[in-house]
């Protein structure tokens, strides 16, 4: 679904209760079309290949992209907001299809190496593989320049995970927040590497930005995209009042 | 006769058939079957250990076996763990080293592995220092050609083709030395085995 300019959104169903009951877990994916030379695309958070409900998440993403005339083979770069399998899981599979470069926050790559063993074990015990990730480069706080004239600001936004990053596109005022903030809620902080205090600080940092489109990592019974500066400000206020005290 | 009686009788019959077949086997075949059983038991325990079964539980299971079988299964368990160990991974899992020390009963083997790992890690770190700048520059250049640049980009040299070649060469060198230690361990356990059991086959049939 085209959002604005060259920005596309591929939301994993879950806005309604019925959808939540029907679909297993996976993240929302976003894409910036033709951001790189040779009209290659940038994909943010590709999600999983298959989820715990044995739903083919990657097949669905590919199919939805094709409806917009975008081929998975033309993805040139995959940006992962954090190292949880429901966000980065399909990275290596897409790399095989497209030869895309893969990136993630430095802090979460360390998490993958250190805690991956225990997490991989827990996930294997549930009957799933822990997907591999071999980043070509890490993302740190700063500027990410793509192609001739596209600039994104990479922000370190720990809280949901230690090395969580968010991507802000100042020209389009688009913010891709991974699992930092949702509509009326925030990312959980009880997973290893999580921190309530860091999450609050990250959210306050992001609240200073001028955002027109706030793109979240999951729908979880509410819209995955919040549009309009007033609506986004209301969302920050609501979270401060109703969520922060319980984190 | 109830259905259950029928099932029990069938199970008995199967057991008797097996016993009859066993009686008809030559000593060589009996040894081979017993060996296969003990190898499989050792491998199964190794897999369960790697999946989290504590050493004390392994000891409890082994304690229920006859002494000769227990020794053989321990050896196969140890060999399986050694076979699975390569230079790139053995240092990441203290459980494997703990089991090797426990099962071999020879702290020297694990110490040799630890010493080798230390040398390997030092060599990797030295190679990184020597190659870091060049590898980073090469990766940045590769990314820039793809239209990717900026202060947020920090090349991951560990996944660059150039670094993987350097690492592969080091892995190959140190893996050879690890195989040498593993072979020494195998020789040690084989000689214990041969010395303890006539014909080098263990007291497989008791």
Notes on the protein architecture:
The complex is a heterodimer of chains A (247) and B (206). Chain A is an alpha/beta fold. Chain A has helices at 17-22, 57-67, 85-88, 91-98, 106-125, 196-207, 229-242, and strands at 2-4, 7-10, 29-36, 40-44, 75-80, 101-105, 137-139, 142-146, 150-156, 165-169, 174-176, 181-182, 185-186, 213-215, 225-227. Chain A is built from seven helices and 15 strands. The model of chain A has no long low-confidence stretch (mean pLDDT 92). Chain B has helices at 3-24, 27-50, 55-63, 67-83, 94-104, 107-145, 161-196, and strands at residues 148-149, 153-155. Chain B is built from seven helices and two strands. The radius of gyration of chain B is 25 Å and the shape is elongated. Classes of the chains: A alpha/beta (247), B mainly alpha (206). At the A-B interface, helix 5, strand 7, strand 8 and strand 9 of A face strand 1 and strand 2 of B. Strand 8 of chain A pairs antiparallel with strand 1 of chain B, so a sheet runs across the interface.
Q: Strand content of the residues of chain B, in percent?
A: under 5%
Oligomer: heterodimer
Largest interface, by Cβ-Cβ below 8 angstroms: which chains and how many residues each? A-B, 31 and 19 residues
Q: Give the low-confidence spans of chain A.
A: none
Number of beta strands of chain B: 2
- Major sheet of chain B: none
Average of pLDDT of chain A: 92
C-alpha termini separation of chain A: 33 Å
Total number of helices of chain B:
7
Uncertain stretches of chain B: 1-5, 193-206
Order of helices and strands of chain B: HHHHHHEEH
Helix-and-strand structural type of chain A? alpha/beta
Largest sheet of chain A: 7 strands, mixed
Can you count the helices of chain A?
7
Radius of gyration of chain B from CA coordinates:
25 Å
């Amino acid at each position: 679904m085209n959002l604005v300019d060259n920005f596309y959104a591929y939301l994993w169903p879950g806005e309604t209760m019925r959808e939540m009951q029907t679909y297993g877990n996976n993240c929302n994916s976003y894409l910036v079309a033709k951001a790189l030379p040779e009209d290659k695309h940038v994909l943010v958070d590709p999600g999983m290949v298959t989820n715990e409900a044995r739903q083919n998440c990657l097949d669905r993403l590919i199919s939805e992209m094709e409806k917009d005339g975008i081929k998975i083979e033309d993805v040139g770069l995959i940006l992962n907001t954090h190292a949880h399998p429901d966000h980065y899981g399909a990275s290596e599979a897409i790399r095989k299809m497209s030869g895309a470069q893969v990136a993630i926050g430095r802090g979460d790559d360390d998490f993958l190496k250190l805690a991956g063993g225990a997490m991989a074990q827990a996930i294997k015990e549930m009957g799933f593989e822990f997907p591999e990730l071999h980043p070509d480069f890490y993302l740190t706080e700063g500027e990410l320049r793509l192609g001739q004239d596209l600039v994104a600001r990479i922000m370190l936004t720990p809280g949901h995970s230690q090395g969580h990053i968010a991507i802000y596109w100042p020209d389009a005022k688009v913010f891709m927040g991974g699992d930092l903030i949702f509509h009326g809620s925030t990312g959980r902080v009880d997973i290893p590497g999580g921190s309530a205090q860091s999450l609050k600080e990250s959210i306050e940092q992001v609240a200073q930005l001028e955002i027109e489109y706030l793109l979240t990592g999951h729908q979880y019974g509410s819209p995955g995209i919040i549009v309009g500066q007033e609506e986004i400000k209301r969302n920050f206020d609501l979270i401060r009042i109703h969520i922060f005290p319980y984190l | 006769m109830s259905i259950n009686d029928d099932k029990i009788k069938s199970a008995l019959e199967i057991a008797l058939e097996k016993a009859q077949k066993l009686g008809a086997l030559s000593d060589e075949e009996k040894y081979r079957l017993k060996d296969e059983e003990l190898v499989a038991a050792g491998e199964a325990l190794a897999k369960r250990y790697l999946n989290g079964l504590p050493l004390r539980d392994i000891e409890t299971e082994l304690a229920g076996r006859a002494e000769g079988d227990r020794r053989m299964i321990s050896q196969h368990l140890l060999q399986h763990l050694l076979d699975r160990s390569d230079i790139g991974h053995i240092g990441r899992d203290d459980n494997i080293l703990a089991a090797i020390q426990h099962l071999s009963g020879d702290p020297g083997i694990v110490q040799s592995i630890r010493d080798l790992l230390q040398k390997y890690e030092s060599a990797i770190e030295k190679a990184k220092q020597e190659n870091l700048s060049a590898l980073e520059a090469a990766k940045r250049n590769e990314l820039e050609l793809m239209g990717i640049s900026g202060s947020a980009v920090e090349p991951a040299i560990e996944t660059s083709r150039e670094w993987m070649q350097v690492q592969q060469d080091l892995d190959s060198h140190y893996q050879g030395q690890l195989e040498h230690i593993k072979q020494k361990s195998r020789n040690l356990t084989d000689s214990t085995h041969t010395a303890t059991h006539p014909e080098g086959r263990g007291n497989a049939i008791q």
